[in-house]
Write a structure and sequence with these properties.
The structure is a homodimer. In chain A, about 30% of the residues lie in helices and about 25% in strands. Chain A is an alpha/beta fold. Chain A has two domains: about 5-275, Spore Coat Polysaccharide Biosynthesis Protein SpsA, Chain A (Alpha-Beta Complex), CATH 3.90.550; about 280-360, no CATH class. In chain A, strands 6-9-7-8-10 form a five-stranded mixed barrel. The longest helix of chain A is centred in the middle third of the chain and has 17 residues, at about 120-135.
Chain lengths: ~350, ~350
Amino acid sequence: MLNHAYAVILAGGRGERFWPLSTARQPKQLLSLVGKRTLIAAAVNHLKGLIPANRIFIITHADLVLPARRALPGFPHRNIIGEPFGRDTAAAITLGAAIIKARDPRAIFCVLTADHIIGDVAIFRRTLIKAFRTVTTSNCLLTIGIQPTFPSTAFGYIEVGPRLSRPGSVEIVNVRRFVEKPNRAKAARYLKTGRFFWNSGMFVWSLDAFEDALARFQPPLKKLMNRVVPVVNTPRFASVLRAEYPRLKKISVDYAIMEKADNIVMARGTFAWDDVGSWSALENHFDKDDQHNVIIGRAVSLDASGNIVVSREGLVALIGVDNLVVVRTDHATLVCPKHRAQDVKRIVELLKRKRHHDTL
Amino acid sequence: MLNHAYAVILAGGRGERFWPLSTARQPKQLLSLVGKRTLIAAAVNHLKGLIPANRIFIITHADLVLPARRALPGFPHRNIIGEPFGRDTAAAITLGAAIIKARDPRAIFCVLTADHIIGDVAIFRRTLIKAFRTVTTSNCLLTIGIQPTFPSTAFGYIEVGPRLSRPGSVEIVNVRRFVEKPNRAKAARYLKTGRFFWNSGMFVWSLDAFEDALARFQPPLKKLMNRVVPVVNTPRFASVLRAEYPRLKKISVDYAIMEKADNIVMARGTFAWDDVGSWSALENHFDKDDQHNVIIGRAVSLDASGNIVVSREGLVALIGVDNLVVVRTDHATLVCPKHRAQDVKRIVELLKRKRHHDTL
């Protein structure tokens, strides 16, 4: 076990891109999209033996606290914290940091996500250990970058500078800049240089370095931290959150801190990683049949190829259709070309507008 | 009411082209594809006031007798007759004729279908009355041809010769020949001549004329008739059917009699008629939305046009797909381009082969 090491797992996502399987009460992190474990249970499991469960804090929406508890039997209930409103990652991380500070002002902590997929868990764990050691000995903000395996246009990138650590299994490098999701040509150029890594949204920081950055770049969040620390584990905790949250701006930690700070380093993650951003991402995690269809659940097909079929209930039958996503659950069926999978969230908006609340 | 007039309604169809809505226990004729009534209830209803229910006989598969009874509350149970095996229309009609003969050897009868849609019911009824009168006064086999409204390639055609009746609201014409389903070019030529009509599979005959035709062209069916007449309404009825049916060839009444006989006339049907042969045929019976989608049940769509969506349970969501048939029931979802709707029966075969019996 790592001394003073804590984890904040961000589990606030609504996962609307996985409708109809994901719903308001069962967002992506509570689904077992790949493998038997739910994504959130897998995220907790990755830390086994590294950080004890009572030092892992899961930050989610208040509505999702109970479903998350059910998904994590044996995990300490009080370590699953509900935000009264979603205010993006900077606020959620600040909340987690405040709870950790109340316990251990000398803490170091990692920020992980509840709805991504990590392969090569042993390498992930080695990376995490190296990262914790790095932030213990130097006053930096560490981000975990992923060695890209193809020119993805779905992720942001991190451009790195010179290597800081001695050559080893996990290298620490200087960060030059964060860049937004590129187009395909740009992504291909990034890949060629060897200097660009996927921005995974995973971080390792000391409380001190994080608080310094808040004080410098995000005073309102520093104020949130100052208000929350004294009320952790008191009856006033919930009412303080309800009072403070409405005042916060929605801002991601990338914009709030990482793109502004000058003491950023990156641990080079060589493990497999995917944020599984939409139905079409499932293709990378399953075997295909002879017609290049990914079939999860009960389905038959005739002259149909390149489709992704997920049937959680009943049977799906395809005739003569190609490159579609077809998802059937007990309450709805989605039919959508793979290249439009990002637009599933627009269907969710439409369903809200048309008041089909029972399907959401 | 017409004297000595009876009806045989053929209800043996398996309706596999309407899977997953149609199943072995609920084939097309037991569905309410259009309107609130099941197709079989509509077929019976068309005869109201013309032929009393106790003179209407429904011939179906033995397995479907109970479901048909449930679909026809108030209809006399013993008038729904189950064949031990399906042997196509010639055998089913012979069975119906035998039951009628046991009641009334001077009968005239119409042969109707349980799974077609008839609009303009008043015109249909006038046509039927004229047809019954025609076969009462002349020794002919009458078929009801439908005035075509577009060059369909899904129906067989009847080419007619000179008019036999005086001009009137329902004309009786001579039949030159029956022709198979044509290709589009041929169908267009047929339409131009004004001499071609759709073969609806509806007939009106006297028992005498029908028996003469059987004796001449189908001795095995004449034998079936002779064996069945004496056992109608006796305990031996079922066992005689079980003994005789296995010996019969599967043959349609068109091949068995109509294409061979030389005393065929046609009543010119000017009512709307459709055999609703597949999901794509539903387009002709429903209004479309702004994007030319036919939506039956609960569905939402985004950039989707020209689709046919039927949802009997739950919701269907389409994004960016065109000209598909999407059908959702409580046990399955079908996705198929409209132009492949005829291949739904191949999916049914596939499901049988792969032993997905609970979906059939």
